[in-house]
Amino acid sequence: MRFTIALFFLLCSVVITAHETVNNTSDNTVVLGVVEFPPLVIRNNEKNTCYGKAVTVSTSLLNDMGYKVRVVCPPPARLFESLRTGKIDLTINVKGTTALDNNVTFVEKPFSYLSLVLLTNPKLKNDKTVSAIRGYDYEGMRKELLEDNYIIFDMANSSDAIQLFQFGRTTHLMTYEAPYDYYVQQSPDSITDHIVSKELNIPTYFAISKASKLSHQLQQSFSQLFASSDAATIIENTSKTNK
Fold first, then answer.
1. Which of 145, 123, 129 is nearest to 191 (CA)?
2. H helices within 137-176, ranges in order?
3. pLDDT value for 201
4. CATH of span 115-201
5. In tens digits, what is the pLDDT along the chain, a chain of 243 residues?
6. Rounded to whole angstroms, how far apart are CA atoms 52 and 41?
7. Do the domains 115-201 and 28-112+203-242 match in fold?
């Protein structure tokens, strides 16, 4: 009798385990992590959500490939850690970010191109202070400035970094041009007579977490999708498809 009861519970546990395994492997929900980057990614602080062209294009693309999508928008440092552990499956980023590169696989077709600039406020004393986003390497610009004895004030996101510069707390600002232009358009009293000290045009890419349970599947899906595409970027490819 004891043997029969023990066998019954053993079979039950096998069935439950098998059921959970099927559910886990059949879950095709992609957690897309994005950081505030207007106008491509705009954060709604009241609802704690993000929207914008990058979110729309990415969600539409993943839906078309058969995935469900859940969008989260943490600060960069938390995003990079979540990609390392596989809590976030996918993001959009430049190559060369130290906290990211060893933990993701990049989709080779660029998502879009961004202009990276170092801005200087000519009205302030050149005291080598720079505002920037915490965790961003800025294609090696951060390292160059540190080696040249600049003092970098790291902020949580692009808006905070831009505001520090706008309020005259730093002489320089490392930023991508699009978020800065968006901020200036939204704020009439913004500094507009800045000097562009440096400028780089760099590509961004989908970056798939190596720790994600969907890592291999996503790599295959993207590879098949863009195998025959002649578009220069994913955004361009999506625009052509939707016409």
1. 123
2. 141-147, 158-166
3. 92
4. 3.40.190.10
5. 443 444 334 334 433 333 332 233 458 999 999 999 999 999 888 888 899 999 999 999 999 999 999 999 998 989 999 999 999 999 999 998 888 989 999 999 999 999 999 999 988 877 899 999 998 999 899 999 999 999 999 999 888 999 999 999 999 999 999 999 898 888 877 766 788 888 889 999 999 999 999 999 999 999 999 988 888 999 887 755 555
6. 5
7. yes
Write the Ramachandran bin of 48: left for phi over 0, alpha for psi from -120 to 50, otherwise beta.
left
Q: Crossing angle, helix 158-166 and helix 177-186, to 10 degrees?
A: 60
CATH code for residues 28-112+203-242: 3.40.190.10
pLDDT at 5: 41
Q: What would the two tokens of residue 231 be?
A: 């578009």
Closest C-alpha to 194, from 164, 153, 155, 165:
165
- Domain ranges for the chain, please list them: 28-112+203-242, 115-201
CA–CA gap between residue 165 and residue 170 (Å, rounded): 5
- My answer on whether omega of the bond before 203 falls inside 30° of 0, hence cis, is no
CA distance 81 to 102: 12
Handedness of CA 148, 153, 154, 158 (dihedral sign): negative
45 by Cβ neighbours in 10 Å (0-12 / 13-18 / 19+) ranks as exposed
Q: What does the block give as tokens for 228?
A: 């025959």
